[in-house]
Design brief:
It is built from 17 helices and 3 strands. With about 350 residues, it is mainly alpha-helical. The chain has a 3-stranded antiparallel sheet.
């Protein structure tokens, strides 16, 4: 009987239907909206099943499941719409299951990356990477989760390296150190114009994409490389559009004003092409910002007045608080080890 019904096992439509029904059963979205407004959860809002904690928790984690599934299918806007009312906070419902919190942040950050809202990706990954660093001892004690958590950490660092290249933002000191340790050589190669590094970082950080249909022909409908290759093509199109922007930014940072003709000579381009590149820079800057609360989306801003480019430097004052917090946490860990060793009773040896 199992063999007769095995074609329906794990079909995308079946999984989607189950997850959607679980979220609708307890009106989880209505409950989350009420929580945002500070309203009490009543039966009128949650419904008969939503008043029971088991249904509420099942519905909430079904939203995370939908986020993950839509990301694997490449529908990033739909993925983010599923968590529109979810708050990524340490005290949220998601924090009850730390592994779920990490997974949700990873997939949400990846979805923002693919829709080019790099500021949101950086904001999410900075928060969750800091959380993982503070709680790493917790996961090391749970060996069955340690490998998966470490893998997610590596993936998020690779994606964060991409996002911070496209959208320069001030990173936390602890996160910046991790990127330099894990991806420092690749970031340096990108700064020297090696575009092939983006492929390596993307493959290191992306999830294992799924095909919404099962086809006996391996070359259809996504080509010989499958869904992963299709997503890489979309990503590489964005990389190509961003190709000249780092070089353009480096020249603009050297001046307070520069004629377009002079900038065209530096870039070895026609003046009209430079104008197009400047407009593309402006457009990418606004898109990359997304919904991020950090207003210092780029380290430079400019405007074009006739044939002159005027640059306003927006240097960010360095913050030392993150560094001191990191050192305080290290000191606390050292104190725990020292106190633990001091409190360990010494068993005297029995003299024969």
């Amino acid at each position: 009987m199992l063999r007769d019904d095995e074609d329906n096992v794990w079909k995308v439509t079946a999984v989607l239907n189950i997850l959607l029904q679980l979220t609708e059963k307890c009106n989880i979205n209505q409950q989350l909206i009420a929580m945002e407004r500070g309203e009490p959860i009543t039966e009128d809002i949650a419904g008969e099943f939503g008043m029971k904690p088991i249904y509420t928790m099942t519905g909430f984690f079904s939203l995370v499941g939908l986020l993950r599934l839509y990301c694997l299918l490449g529908d990033y806007h739909m993925a983010l719409s599923c968590i529109e009312h979810v708050q990524f906070k340490d005290k949220d419902m998601m924090a009850l299951v730390p592994a779920c919190q990490i997974t949700a942040n990873y997939y949400a950050g990846f979805a923002y990356l693919m829709i080019r809202k790099y500021g949101n990706t950086i904001q999410l990954y900075q928060h969750i990477l800091g959380y993982m660093q503070r709680t790493k001892q917790f996961f090391q004690n749970r060996s069955f989760q340690a490998d998966d958590i470490n893998k997610k950490n590596e993936q998020m660092l690779a994606l964060l390296a991409i996002a911070s290249t496209f959208c320069p933002l001030r990173l936390d000191e602890s996160v910046n150190i991790q990127i330099k340790e894990k991806q420092g050589d690749k970031v340096a190669r990108i700064q020297h114009g090696d575009m092939a590094v983006y492929d390596d970082l993307f493959f290191s950080g992306c999830p294992k994409f799924l095909s919404p249909v099962v086809s006996e022909n391996p070359t259809s409908p996504f080509g010989s490389s499958g869904p992963r290759g299709l997503q890489l093509q979309v990503f590489k199109a964005e990389v190509e559009q961003q190709r000249l922007i780092p070089t353009l930014r480096s020249f603009l940072k050297l001046y307070t004003s520069i004629p377009i003709s002079k900038l065209a000579k530096f870039l070895d381009m026609h003046e009209n092409e430079v104008r197009c590149c400047l407009m593309a820079f402006k457009h990418k800057k606004e898109v990359a910002k997304g919904d991020s609360t950090d207003q210092t989306t780029m380290d430079i801003d400019f405007y074009v007045d006739k044939d002159m480019v005027h640059i306003s430097d927006t240097k960010i004052a360095r913050h030392y608080g993150d560094y001191y917090v990191q050192q305080v946490l290290k000191l606390k860990d050292s104190n725990k080890l020292i106190l633990g060793a001091a409190l360990t009773p010494v068993v005297p040896a029995n003299n024969a």
